[in-house]
Specification:
This protein has 9 helices and 23 strands. By secondary structure, it is α+β, with helices and mostly antiparallel strands.
Length: 375
């Protein structure tokens, strides 16, 4: 029998995007997926085997129970996953395995003890995920359009608010970050998307990029709204950020906004097939420095521009390729965010985020929602 190598993933496809990408099958519990040169195979529990046969976009669905009984027949009273895999691999002549970087260490040790060679492959596990096809781009655009609608509902609500003692009100009710977040979450859910950890941060909170925000929304200071929902049906994410001020922005905030807006335009103008994301990121750092905005640890905390310029978007909200301080070459078909920001204690933060599709000689911005500071 010819000795084969195989990819192996043991995970829940509701959590593991590589597994969903390979199978197009959703299951909450861990399942076994094996991919050889010419075959995709799943080993399934009795509960899920028939559904997998009907729904999974693979070649072969096999019974976990059959291999479990075979292992028991060899004298193993309570077979574990490695025992089940050993039965299958012996049938197929598989001795070498390629697993993702997050593969369970217990599974790896037990398989190595049985004599299997294991190669851990760094991300991306499936390189083809980096280049989106037309169907994938359409799915991202659909998620993005619903995200833009949700963003608009929040901004229009803020625009219509009254200001009393620097706090935003809707009638007699204080408007909070939590309430704005709920409005967008509800809008997205009604359109088939799930949003988690949506950022609605204002004032001092906005100087910390990933602070979700809480409490009353304040007038005349930056409000960062960052939402990144996932489509329930396609599983593809969108990602969009806008910064607004209800009332009048200070000169300092206007300066930040102008700098971030021009930085985003610079980054988008640089992106094309073959460019190193590190070069784009460094250009943004230089751009901010030229404008007088220092970045790094200032007065005991990180300030200025201290996160990546962008990241891939797809079945994960953060996936390769990256646009940051590490080298990562962009290629036609990549879908990435462009999201420079500036954050300073005592002023707040400004971030703008759009999604672009990388092409041979340019980047196409697929985000249509306008950038408006004061509302």
């Amino acid at each position: 029998m010819k000795i084969q190598a195989a990819n192996l993933i043991i995970a829940s496809s509701e959590i593991d995007s590589n597994l969903y990408y390979a199978t197009k099958f959703l299951a909450p519990d861990p399942l076994i997926f094996i991919q050889t040169v010419d075959e995709k195979i799943m080993i399934m529990s009795d509960l899920e085997i028939d559904r997998a046969k009907d729904q999974a976009k693979i070649d072969t669905v096999l019974s976990y129970t059959i291999y479990e009984e075979a292992a028991k027949g060899r004298g193993i009273d309570n077979p574990n996953t490695a025992d089940i895999l050993h039965e299958f691999f012996q049938e197929r002549g598989i001795k070498s395995l390629v697993v993702p970087s997050y593969f369970g260490i217990r599974h790896a040790i037990l398989l190595q003890e049985k004599g299997y060679e294991i190669e851990v492959k760094k991300d991306p596990f499936y390189e083809e995920r980096l280049k989106k096809d037309e169907k994938e781009i359409d799915a991202i655009i659909t998620s993005l359009r619903h995200s833009e609608d949700a963003m608009n509902s929040a901004i229009e609500f803020i625009k219509d608010a009254e200001i009393k003692d620097s706090i935003l009100y809707s009638g007699e009710k204080v408007i909070t970050s939590e309430y704005i977040r709920m409005l967008m979450t509800k809008h997205l859910l009604e359109n088939g998307l799930i949003a988690q950890h949506t950022i609605v941060s204002c004032g001092e909170d906005s100087s910390s990029p990933h602070t979700e925000g809480s409490g009353p929304v304040i007038a005349n200071v930056p409000i960062i709204i960052d939402l990144f929902p996932r489509s329930i049906s396609t599983r593809y994410y969108a990602d969009i950020t806008r910064t607004i001020v209800k009332g009048t922005a200070s000169g300092e905030v206007k300066g930040l906004y102008t700098a971030v807006s021009s930085a985003q335009e610079l980054a988008i103008s640089m992106i094309r097939d073959g460019i190193d994301g590190k070069d784009v990121h460094n250009a943004i750092l230089d751009h901010f420095k030229t404008l007088g905005y220092e970045s790094g640890e200032l007065n005991g905390r990180m300030q200025g521009f201290f996160h990546g310029t962008g990241h891939g978007v797809g079945l994960d909200v953060h996936e390769p390729p990256r646009i940051n301080k590490k080298s990562d070459i962009l290629h036609a078909g990549n879908v990435v965010t462009v999201e420079p920001g500036l954050y300073y204690k005592g002023i707040g933060g400004v971030r703008l985020e759009d999604i672009v599709v990388v092409q041979e000689d340019r980047a196409i911005n697929i985000t249509k929602y306008p950038r408006i500071l004061e509302v």
